[in-house]
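subagent[fold] <- orchestrator: predict structure for attached chain, return tokens only, no commentary.
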Amino acid sequence: MKKSIEFMKRNYKVLLVVGILAAGLWSFIPSKKITGDDKDKMLIELLSFVLEKGHFSPIEINDEFSKKAYAAYIESLDPTKRFFIQSDITEFQKYELAIDDMIRSKDLAFFDLTYKRLMLRMKESKVIYTNILSKPLDLNDNETINVDYEKLPYAATMKDLDQRWRKQLELAVLSDITDKEDIQNALSSGISDETKDVKDVKPAEKIEPKSFEELEKTARKTTESNLNNNFSFIAELTREDWFTVYINAIVTQYDPHTYYFSPEDKEKFDVSMSGKFEGIGARLQKKNEGIEVSELISGGPAWRGKLLEQGDVIIKVAQANEEAIDIAGMRLDDVIKKIKGPKGTLVKLTVKKVDGSVKVVPIVRDEVETEETFAKSTVVEKDGKLFGVIYLPKFYQTFENRSNRDAFKDVAIEIERLKAMNVQGIVMDLRDNGGGSLETVVKMTGLFIDKGPVVQVKPAGGKAQILPDSDPKVQWEGPLVVMINNYSASASEIFAAAIQDYNRGIIIGSKQSYGKGTVQNVFELNEFVRGNQYGELGALKTTTQKFYRINGGSTQLEGVKSDIVMPDRFSFMQTGEKDEKSALPWDKIEPANYTPLQINYDKVIANSQKRIANNDNFNLISENAKWINDRKEDNTISLNYTAYKKEIVDIESQTKKFKSLEK
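subagent[fold] -> orchestrator:
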């Protein structure tokens, strides 16, 4: 009860917003079951209201807003410009400055036009690529292709679109031919660098090389198969899925982290945050019009049962003793819904095994944990001393049941495990950790510091609130290093910033972290609407607060600067929040009252910098990063087989020195 009261005190302004929204939305009371256009119109009105009242920095919905939303939407529909032609874009452009008005009037004319046109163009495109790939391609002319699609104009006519498809297909076929040639050459000459780790390949084995014509034919079939699978996936998307794309082109103009989740997407988001779901513990994929088991999750009910195997194709699904349902032609998401279910319930899968036999596999559903989400630790030995490394991919937490495992509890367990092994120091590896629960990161920081402020959180127009660690216990008092990279974001930056501000440890990694200094709340849209005539409405994740370091600075855009910068492949490239068009600006507030530890790391940092500067591998990484950056504007590729091969050889020659970095 005490914790609930403390949580409400800290988050009263967010809760107040929710209350205001709920009160304001009593007008959204349908008198009958609403679907289709009416539901979409209501959703636009509802989202507009929530954003206006709940977003940290609401923006004016005007012509400039419309222009940005229009550009984002069209790009998301056809990023490689191989569906629409210029006449389509000309027709669409009359709505470019009208989206603001259409939001207010709940007019869906623009969405309906683009959706119907896209479906038509995709249908036509399948005919185009099928026809092109039905006969040999001319790979001896001197054409080139520019793959900078953002700067590429739309095809003027359907004939031009056909030529664009031809060029893209020729590039795909060329790439596949050269890959097959490399494998063929390696195998025909016996064991080489490419095949030395391949099992069942004997040094004396020789493979009869295929002719160029045979390789070209096989590459066309492979390319067509890949496209058919891709188009099959796209064909499963419903009008509701595409409307979600339209909605998100609008709401992401507020900031890059405001996002609408359809009901299905919200369920996936919940699983990603908690690392848990109830089902059979298998990952499925659509393949050749069937649903194939692509992976069994270790420890899950399907894995424990040992009857379902990777590669099995699911034919029918039955609930307990009910009649089995044939799933042929069914959308993957719909099949998953039928297979998932409450813990303890029975599902029976009729599957075709790899050997061709058909079997019924009964599985009792259970709670499944996706272990790759959770904290893990290991030890490394250096100069006779042991050091612990804790890898944390996400600050996960199950919001519905706080008694379940979360990142704070798991990291605490890993620390105790490492202490029992007498490690001399701990590295918290937060590379590629995109964030997660704010509450969890505050508690986790407390594992390494005495009680005190951890982060400051400021709502729109309000006073900053300090979120403290109130527990004086320090679980790890020894040396601490925090590893970050360009993709360490949000909660990762809160942790790294607090450790740095308290002078508790050393931050090492990329020049800076991602630069996301905002806090989001997820609003379940059904909670704001009386009755359930609309069905499931999904949720809106929107920015409601900004967080600040205890020194008063923001991590927004600037991120956390490493004390020791280690070169990486992206050292010279612009990545992170700075690269987002709708990112909120950097600012600062008054610092919190805190006392840094009096530890001097200057000598440690200087020695590390010296070792990095004199390390051949690190110098090679820097050289590789510069080479990658220099090539980013090189977007023209030859479609002539001989010239293309030469380009590949030249690139491989330039990158040969970097091969050692892949080990």
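orchestrator: received. Logging for downstream: The CA atoms of residues 441 and 559 lie 16 Å apart. The chain has a mean pLDDT of 86.
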